[in-house]
């Protein structure tokens, strides 16, 4: 049988042991009815019984042999007709089909069977997070380069005939409260939060100037952020941060990007179940204060924005209810999680796709798959006709990383996934 790894995946094996057919089973039993088989069996049993009483003399051994020979002859007279009947019945059965499955096909089928089983969110890895991206690290560092609101307005006017009303409100508010007196204000609150608004708007401007990002994507980005114009100002920064991180983390490499996509899926889910009100950001901040680390959410996005402990303590019961609601939605989102990651990877850089392909190749080598068979297995199992990772490929990676599991867990409800 094939060796099974700790994560449930089989090691490749060239030894395929087909299951015996009924005809083969009957013939095996019939072939076992032989005189010498009965003789050896009876003689062995008699010798064991006799040796329990003491050492046997040569004459006793000879007597046992004669008795075994006579008994075997008697038994064979009764059993031989049964043997003939069994052989006759087996001859009436059809010959078993010779399995045409090659070792490679058998290995691929085993992987497919595992990846298409009922899948569960792995509660043991809910807290895991990706490594911080270079963009995230620079985002939290205050900008020193010169920037004005006019720079952002100029880039927006390249994409729209006029400044959209939501953005007019956002820019006016930020300029009046945080940026107008940025260099002269002595209050810590303005300098502390103002530096983050300044940094965020400057990076947003740089994103709009990025030639590698399509015009449509830039317009979608501005429209999405603008849809939060009626929310509180910290929410604007939270949403802008989340969108910019999602754009630039697609340039990440390795399996870390998959973990980032898992985290972004959680962030989007939290945003979905949080009411779009003037206190949305405060709900997110308070929720993360209590449950963010245990759920593997991004804790750096809000690191430099101050909020009162009074607000957090006042709504602790609300955040606990939100925690249960979040878990309920996340448990039921296995299929959506897989499709979300697939979409994100399909839109990512070729470098990242090559990195994931290398990861899959190394994993197949760990399964002891022959080197010359790896390309065909990957293309047939994990990629579609457009050479993009399919749902099975994403599922395989999530299983290998422990994000999903095929084993039911008592702490999480059962989730069926039908990619």
TrEMBL record:
Q: Where are the transmembrane segments?
A: 62-80
Specify the domain of life of the species encoding this protein: Bacteria
UniProt keyword Membrane, yes or no: yes
Residues forming the DUF1539 domain are 129-258
Keyword set, alphabetical order:
Membrane, Transmembrane, Transmembrane helix
Enumerate the InterPro entries for this protein: DUF1539, DUF1548
Q: Which residues form the DUF1548 domain?
A: 276-404
Q: What is this protein called?
A: Uncharacterized protein
Annotated organism of origin: Chlamydia felis (strain Fe/C-56)
């Amino acid at each position: 049988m094939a060796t099974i790894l700790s994560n449930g995946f089989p090691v490749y094996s060239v030894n395929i042991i087909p299951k015996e057919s009924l005809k083969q089973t009957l013939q095996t039993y019939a072939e076992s009815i032989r005189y010498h088989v009965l003789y050896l069996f009876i003689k062995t049993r008699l010798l064991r019984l006799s040796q329990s009483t003491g050492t046997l003399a040569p004459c006793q051994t000879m007597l046992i042999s004669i008795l075994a020979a006579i008994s075997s002859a008697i038994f064979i007279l009764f059993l031989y007709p049964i043997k003939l009947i069994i052989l006759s019945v087996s001859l009436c059965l059809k010959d078993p089909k010779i399995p045409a499955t090659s070792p490679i096909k058998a290995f691929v089928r085993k992987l497919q069977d595992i990846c298409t089983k009922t899948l569960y969110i792995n509660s043991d890895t809910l807290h895991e997070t990706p490594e911080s991206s270079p963009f995230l690290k620079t985002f939290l560092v205050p900008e020193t380069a010169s920037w004005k609101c006019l720079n952002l307005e100029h880039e927006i006017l390249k994409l729209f005939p006029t400044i959209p009303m939501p953005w007019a409100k956002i820019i006016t508010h930020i300029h009046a409260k945080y940026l107008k007196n940025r260099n002269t204000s002595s209050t810590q609150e303005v300098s502390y939060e103002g530096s983050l608004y300044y940094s965020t708007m400057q990076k947003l401007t740089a994103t709009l100037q990025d030639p590698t990002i399509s015009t449509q994507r830039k317009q979608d980005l501005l429209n999405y952020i603008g849809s939060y114009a009626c929310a509180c100002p910290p929410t604007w920064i939270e949403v802008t941060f989340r969108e910019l991180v999602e754009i630039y983390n697609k340039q990440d490499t390795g399996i870390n990007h998959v973990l980032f996509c898992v985290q972004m899926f959680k962030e989007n889910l939290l945003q979905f179940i949080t009411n779009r009100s003037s206190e949305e950001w405060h709900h997110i901040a308070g929720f993360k204060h209590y449950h963010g680390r245990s759920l593997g959410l991004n804790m750096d996005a809000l690191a430099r924005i101050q909020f009162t402990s009074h607000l957090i303590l006042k709504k602790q019961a609300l955040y606990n209810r939100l925690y249960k609601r979040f878990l309920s939605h996340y448990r039921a989102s296995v299929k959506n999680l897989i499709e979300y990651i697939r979409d994100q990877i399909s839109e990512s850089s070729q470098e990242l796709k090559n990195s994931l392909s290398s990861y899959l190749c190394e994993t197949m080598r760990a399964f002891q798959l022959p080197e010359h068979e790896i390309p065909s297995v990957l293309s047939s199992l994990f990629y579609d006709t457009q050479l993009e990772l399919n749902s099975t490929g994403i599922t395989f990676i999530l299983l290998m990383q422990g994000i999903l599991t095929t084993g039911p867990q008592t702490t999480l409800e059962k989730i069926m996934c039908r990619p």
